[in-house]
UniProtKB/TrEMBL annotation:
<dbReference type="GO" id="GO:0005737">
    <property type="term" value="C:cytoplasm"/>
</dbReference>
<comment type="similarity">
    <text>Belongs to the bacterial ribosomal protein bS1 family.</text>
</comment>
<dbReference type="GO" id="GO:0006412">
    <property type="term" value="P:translation"/>
</dbReference>
<keyword id="KW-0687">Ribonucleoprotein</keyword>
<dbReference type="GO" id="GO:0003735">
    <property type="term" value="F:structural constituent of ribosome"/>
</dbReference>
<feature type="domain" description="S1 motif">
    <location>
        <begin position="6"/>
        <end position="75"/>
    </location>
</feature>
<dbReference type="InterPro" id="IPR003029">
    <property type="entry name" value="S1_domain"/>
</dbReference>
<dbReference type="GO" id="GO:1990904">
    <property type="term" value="C:ribonucleoprotein complex"/>
</dbReference>
<dbReference type="GO" id="GO:0003729">
    <property type="term" value="F:mRNA binding"/>
</dbReference>
<dbReference type="GO" id="GO:0005840">
    <property type="term" value="C:ribosome"/>
</dbReference>
<dbReference type="InterPro" id="IPR050437">
    <property type="entry name" value="Ribos_protein_bS1-like"/>
</dbReference>
<keyword id="KW-0689">Ribosomal protein</keyword>
<dbReference type="InterPro" id="IPR012340">
    <property type="entry name" value="NA-bd_OB-fold"/>
</dbReference>
<dbReference type="Pfam" id="PF00575">
    <property type="entry name" value="S1"/>
</dbReference>
<protein>
    <submittedName>
        <fullName>General stress protein 13</fullName>
    </submittedName>
</protein>
Length: 125
């Protein structure tokens, strides 16, 4: 069978390693679900998510055309528990926690402009 990237297929877990799980898609084709593609979030032990012999639905993420290795994902078929930016208000890099934002740039701009003009004036002399 010819597989395509993005295709959803059903397979059987044939082996588990510390780096991922091997899944047999058909008699001749086997793919790997990397540990990072098993679920959203941290995974301490792969056997908590899948076991040898489990039948699971996976999505084909990549097919290496030279070695015919197939990368699979279980995570892409799951809805994340929360959006990665859902908690933006509490992350200081977005300026909400400190309350500063771009206001500080607006306050400092006249001072910076004056200093830059003085330096240009000095360099011309």
């Amino acid at each position: 069978m010819v597989y395509k990237i993005g295709q959803k297929v059903r397979g059987t877990v044939t082996g588990i390693q510390p780096y991922g799980a091997f899944v047999s898609i058909d008699e001749d084709t086997q793919g790997l679900i990397h540990i990072s593609e098993l679920k959203h979030g941290y995974i301490k032990d792969i056997s908590e998510i899948v076991s040898k012999g489990d039948e699971i639905d996976v999505m084909i993420m990549d097919i290496d055309e030279y070695s015919n290795k197939i990368s699979l994902s279980l995570r892409s078929l799951q809805k994340p528990k929360y959006h990665p930016f859902a908690n933006r208000k509490n992350i200081s890099r977005y300026g909400r926690k400190t309350g500063i934002g771009f206001k500080s740039i607006d306050d400092k701009m006249p001072e910076w402009t004056e200093r830059a003009l003085k330096e240009i004036e000095i360099s011309r002399k």
